[in-house]
Structures are given as structure tokens and as C-alpha cells.
User: What shape does this take?
Amino acid sequence: MKKRSLAIAIALTFTLGACVDDGDDGLNGVDGVTGADGAPGQNGVSTFVSRDDVVATNANIAYAAYADSLISVVALRNSLETFIASPTEANFTLAKQAWLASREPYGQTEVYRFRVGPIDALKEDGTMGDDGDGPEGSINAWPLGEAIIDYVAPVVDGNSGPESAENALSGNAIANITDYPVIDKETISSLFEFGEDERNVTTGYHAIEFLLWGQDLNEDLSGAGQRDSSGGQRPVSDFYTTENGNPNACTSGEVAVVEDICARRGDYLLAATDILIDDLTAVVEAWEPGAGVHYNAYIAGGDVSLAKIFEGMGRLSFGELGGERIKIALATDSQEDEHSCFSDNTHRDIFLNAKGVQNSFLGSYTRIDGELIEGASPYDLMVVEGHFELANQLRASLEETMAKAAVIDTKAKTGTPFDQLIQEGVEQENITAVIAALVQQTDDIEQAISALGITTNDLRQDTEEDIGG
Assistant: This one.
């Protein structure tokens, strides 16, 4: 596994270095400069920006963002391996930090959903299928029915188990040694959406998150009053075994259990991460410039591909982010409906999803190593085609959303996480402000679609929540 992981990381680094031409001067059409071709344009945008240029930039950024996601999960896998071999508090902290780091690039890729791309439509045989055939669910599905994986508290805020009792396992996968004697990729995958129950999620980022943090319980540690500002509180002793130097100390929370359970918990972490690497590898390969099953068709797609850029931007903004990821949690006041409820990282999910929309419109993405990938953007195209005011209006809307999301991000980082901001009885204006900004930017995205004469599906189809607009 180590050799394979290193090979993936090296291959991605070299491929990315060759896939994007930023131009000798590095100019990307910002206000007040001449276009990269040397011809002056409106607001400094080159008069030779074409629709195909915009699509190609979007494809190259998609590849870079997914590649960064894969590279960071390979790093996470290495950190988990170190932790399981030596489960100290320091290594536990490093493993959690590696998970948090892995979410940074992936959050910015969510804008590539809702457009029948690899994340939503790539089949296991490597060909493109229909919406719903892709690996997105196994990568990032939530809320997690954590009771199918490991022990949970008797009472939690929301539903930690399957939607229907008949789809529950006998015990949980880690504790049920009789029915599931080996915890590996095949076992975990066979339990995904067990009983055709979508809440029975056993793979992906959030399964790993749950095994690292455990549940973030309803309120404070005494079970009454305001929620605390920490995430889940899984003890490091949940991973103790004789083999890693901790005999007779294995726990499931506060309960002492046989050490086989702790060993199986470590096996689950590594197997779930290996599945995540496999899934992300397939998506990265589909986007690979010049060779990917999706990349070549996409950059040759003309206005169809251009429309997909705007559809992804709009549907993520309105239904998925504004409705499903923010409004439902706000309306139900439920930690179980948070996107990253175990780690209290939902503030970053919101910020990064919004950032991905902004990246798409501005044709710019900063890689995890600091390299800037940029090129012709939808903003440039709107200016070149004469929609100057609308281009600036949409850009301003995206900036407003980022400003509102930054407030939530800052509050979380200074002790008031998302689950406190949505709690009944507290001021919720910071949350409602982000929703309102997302609705406004969706309105502006729809105007841009109309102005460019392209056709998309309904941008507001992905939620039944009333968020305005």
C-alpha cells in the first residue's frame, strides 16, 4: 500500500505540472491589465477568450482539485497507519488533523456535481453512465447511520441508525465478529446501504470521521444546557491492543471490551480509507487531461459543457448547500443533520463549497502546495460577450457569500461552531445571512445562463426546503 500510495502522489504531481498553461505572463483577465494575448479588452480581459477556452480551464481545475483530494487522502492513510501502530494521543491528534486537511481540497470539488460528471456518473467498469451511477455516495454520503459501524450513545440528537429497524444489523459491524469475522474492503462495501437503506453508509470521509472523533453528543457533557464547543470525544483507548503495546486496555468509550474490537476498529479505518483512495483514483483518472474518459468528451462539448459549469454552480449554491446542508440543520436544530457532525467541521464544508463555486466562475484554484491554476473564466467570457454589468454583479454576489461564510468560519475557529449557531434560543442571523446570499447568487447565475443563451436543468430542484427565491 505504501508503494502504491507514493506512486499515485508522484504521478499526480508530474501530470498536474503539465496539464495547465497559465501563460508566460501569468495574467488571467483581472481588471486593469491587458489580456494574455496582448490585446486590450473590456476590464483587461482578452478579446480572444472563447467558450472552449473557458471549458478547458474548468476541466483542468477539476483535475487539479480532485488530484489534490486524492493526494491528501493518501497522506491521511499514512497518518492513520502510524496511529494504529502506535495509538498515542499525539498520533491521534495528527490523524485527525490529516482528516481535516483532506477535506480542504475535496470541499472545493463539490461544484463538479450535478452535471453528470465522473463523481455522479462514473461506473465501476470505468465508463460513464447516468446520474447516480458514480461514487459520490460512497465518498461523501451523509448523514451517517453510525450505529451500523460502531457503538453509539443510547440517546443522540437525531437518528444515528438506519431509517427502518428491519434494515439494522445484529449489533454493529465492528462488534459482530460472528457475522463479519474479517473487516476489510469487501466487508465494508457489502454493507453499504444495507437493506437498500440510504442511511446505512459504511464508507467515505464521514465513516472515517466517525471512527476518529466518535459522536458529538446532544448537549454538554452533563447532558443538559448549551452544547459544548468540542467535537466528538472518542478516547484513544478505543484503539489499544497488545500488538501496539497496550495490553488489556481496549475500550468502547468508557466500557472495557476484548482487544479484538480495538484491532477491528483499526482495520476498519484503514479499509475505509483504501476504498476512498480507490474511488478518488477513478475520478481523477476520468478527469486526466488528454487521457480521461470524461475529460476529452467534456472539453469538446462546447455550449453543453459551458452550461454544465453554470448548472453545477447553481445547483450546489441553492439546493445542496443552501437547502440540504444548511437550512435542514437549522430547521431541525439537529447535530445529526450537520455535514461534518462528529468533528464539528461543518463551517469548513460551507466555506469550501462556496469557494468552489467562486473558483469556477473566476477560473482559478490554489492547489494544496500553493500553486495557482488559472485560465479563461466564465467571468472573462461574460465580459468579452458584452455582459459587463451582469458579470460584475455575479462576481459581487459570490464575494458576498464568501464574506458571510467567513463569519461562520471565524466563529467556529474562535469557539462557536455551527451546531451552536443553529441551536434554538440563540441568534441565528449568521446562518440565515449565508442562505440569503446563496439565494441571491443563484438568481444571478440564472441571469448569466440566460444572457449566454445556454440551457441547463432547473437549478432549484435539489431541495424541498423553503429558502426563498
Observations:
- Residues 51-85 form the longest helix (35 residues).
- Residues 1-11, 13-40, 220-224 have pLDDT under 50 and may be disordered.
